[in-house]
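Form 12-C: Joint structure prediction
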Amino acid sequence: MLIIGERINSTRKLISEAIARRDASFIIDEALTQVAAGADYLDVNAGHMPDEQDSLKWLVEVVQGATETPICLDSASPEVIRKVIPLVDKTPIINSVTLESVRLEPLLSIVGSKKVKFIGLCQSSDKLASTREAKLELAGRLVEEGCKFNVPLDDLYIDPLVFPIATDSSSALSTLDAIREIMESFPGVHTICGMTNVSYGLPARKLVNKTFLTMAMLCKLDSVIIDPTDKEIYAAIKAGNALLNQDEFCLEFIEAYREGRLPGSR
Amino acid sequence: MLIIGERINSTRKLISEAIARRDASFIIDEALTQVAAGADYLDVNAGHMPDEQDSLKWLVEVVQGATETPICLDSASPEVIRKVIPLVDKTPIINSVTLESVRLEPLLSIVGSKKVKFIGLCQSSDKLASTREAKLELAGRLVEEGCKFNVPLDDLYIDPLVFPIATDSSSALSTLDAIREIMESFPGVHTICGMTNVSYGLPARKLVNKTFLTMAMLCKLDSVIIDPTDKEIYAAIKAGNALLNQDEFCLEFIEAYREGRLPGSR
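Section 2 - Result
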């Protein structure tokens, strides 16, 4: 399970304040904490800053200066991503491309100049994919567009999107079915999903989020954007890996317990 | 999700002591607590008592006198079950039939005299089914034998068995695959599974058990033998139902929260 650490995001007040005062040590601490907690990539987002582009450049430089862990470059603006990407030194994941024409070509055409990976959302100009069928159709189009721009399947992380079950009782199941079918239909491609939207409007949200993650792992979801310091989500991933035969003799599970990262340990 | 409450079992020291001193109020309290917590059936087991048959008769009478909730009659001895069953007033579940000849015919032939349901274990004289293929083969034979004795599929709860992942990393996945395929192959049949064996030998066992249960629910497992007063397992079931579109608008989930039965409530 590839873990993208989500904490360095300007929608979080402490982060936007740290960015505003250019507090590198605060950001470095957030970066190192997530790496120690198991992050494989660090998402950086400055979308809530008035100077998004400069702020994002600063974030990239600060994070890269502090850790070898690669970056997931997160912006709603293809223009900002194109301007910041020359600064990124390891192969980044771009978060995110959609099938909207304003985002699709400007982002995928980066491939000509730099090795990049993409998160692709099942979202087009006229459609947020809410049914299993729509998600599969848009996933197919993402794969197709990626092909045109020479993006190998292994560099594509498809996010089928999930909507709150509080307003659409079938939404989690549509997403789970879509994850399974995307992984079967396009061998080599990755799937990714955020874990918070599904529980919007409900109490006990963490319970719903980690239960959804557990089910998604069984459907072969192989990447997540989460807070790796969240003990419950991390424990669900470790237990899921052990149950799904991705942790021989449960050695990593037992190690996580010894490190005090599972319930009841320490 | 059909819940069989597992607490009235003589392998538990407090229960065997209560049975030994014929402490009806202790047993009634265990029965009513589980019913209040959501049990649809109450398992009763006196297998660890020197006078199993008399103890089981006493348990059945005590439990039936206290609640309308039907009984799951649990004994390794077909003879004991045959002797006790005339006392049972509601349609019970017999726990359990296997493909071993000493258990198969003596138990299935009860059907002629009384309406009963069966838990059928994927276990024969020479085989404990440990692979997906073996589980499916034995499940098919259970269905076949049930047919011979006029047991409708709806009265059969197939337990594919699960073995500890600590010693066989693929065992959970074999069971999950088997559950999915049994439910697809024999429409109308039920599947059931115990939740504790999978985590044997590991730390943080409750985490592993509830993660396994969550995955099994996605595979359409529709019955469990659990302690319904266990808050974590109960919460996993409620979250699973909500995510799997078995709880419209999450009303039951929200109610469970209001009743203080989910994490963070009250």
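Section 3 - Comments
Residues 132-148 of chain B form the longest helix (17 residues). Chain B touches chain A at residues 165-166, 169-170, 172-173, 176, 198, 202-204, 206-208, 211-212, 214-215, 217-219, 235-236, 239-240, 242-245, 247-250, 253-254, 257, 262-265 (CB under 8 Å).
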